[in-house]
């Protein structure tokens, strides 16, 4: 099975989580890790499964406005992290509106969000799930959130948890092939 892990990351933490998920998946499946601007229709067409992730901005998926706010936060030094993405490049929200997965393509969503009650932090995974299903992908596992601190740094242990989740997800995908 060929799994395509697609992610959007402003400060690099969602990217770090995506890398660890991909590492877990590669123990079982051929896995390609890519940022959303590089997730072309040709890449998607070659995928048997999609694992799609994004940071949570203002309780959901980022918008062009929230990505520009993230850039200002980084520019003003309000986070210890540097901006890793061009805020003017479309994110997962926009990518999902053009997504055309192959028939039978399986999909799972993940996000990063501030550590706290979801009523306060929100979760981007629900919008990702909805977009994947709306595009015709088959949702095969519950979405997962990985936690960051208020300063956008990854909570200790979340990288290891992401890798373990990727391995579990790989086993789930294998069981669906049988």
Q: Considering the protein shown, what is the CATH homologous superfamily?
A: Flavodoxin domain
The number of helices is: 7
Strand content: 15-25%
Weakly predicted, low-confidence segments: none
**What percentage of residues falls in helices of 4 or more residues?**
25-40%
Helix-strand pattern, N to C?
Answer: EHEHEHHEHHEEH
| Sheet with the most strands, sense and barrel status | 6 strands, parallel
From the coordinates shown, what is the CATH architecture?
A: 3-Layer(aba) Sandwich
End-to-end span in angstroms? 12 Å
Mean residue pLDDT: 93
Q: Provide the CATH top-level class.
A: Alpha Beta
Describe the model:
With 178 residues, the protein is an alpha/beta fold. The protein has a single domain, classed as 3-Layer(aba) Sandwich (Rossmann fold). 40% of the residues lie in helices and 20% in strands. It contains seven helices and six strands; from the N terminus they run βαβαβααβααββα. The chain has helices spanning 13-25, 41-45, 64-75, 92-98, 118-121, 125-134, 158-177, and strands at residues 2-7, 30-35, 49-55, 106-114, 138-139, 144-148. Strands 1, 2, 3, 4, 5 and 6 form a six-stranded parallel beta sheet that branches. Strand 1, helix 1 (13-25) and strand 2 (30-35) form a beta-alpha-beta unit. Helix 1 packs across helix 7 and helix 4 runs parallel beside helix 6. The chain is globular. The termini are close together.
């Amino acid at each position: 099975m060929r799994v395509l892990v697609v992610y959007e990351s402003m400060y690099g933490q969602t990217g770090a989580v995506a890398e660890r998920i991909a590492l877990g998946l590669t123990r079982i499946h051929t896995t390609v890790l890519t940022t959303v601007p590089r997730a072309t229709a040709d890449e998607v067409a070659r995928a048997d499964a999609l694992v799609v992730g994004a940071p949570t901005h203002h309780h959901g998926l980022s918008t062009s406005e929230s990505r520009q706010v993230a850039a200002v936060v980084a520019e003003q030094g309000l986070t210890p992290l540097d901006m890793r993405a061009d805020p003017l490049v479309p994110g997962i929200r926009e990518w999902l509106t053009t997504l055309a997965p192959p028939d039978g393509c399986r999909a799972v969503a993940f996000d990063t969000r501030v550590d706290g009650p979801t009523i306060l932090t929100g979760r981007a995974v629900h919008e990702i799930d909805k977009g994947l299903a709306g595009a015709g992908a088959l949702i095969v596992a519950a979405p997962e959130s990985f936690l960051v601190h208020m300063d956008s740094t990854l909570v200790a242990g979340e990288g290891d948890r992401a890798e373990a989740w990727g391995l579990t997800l790989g086993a789930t995908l294998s069981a669906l092939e049988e």
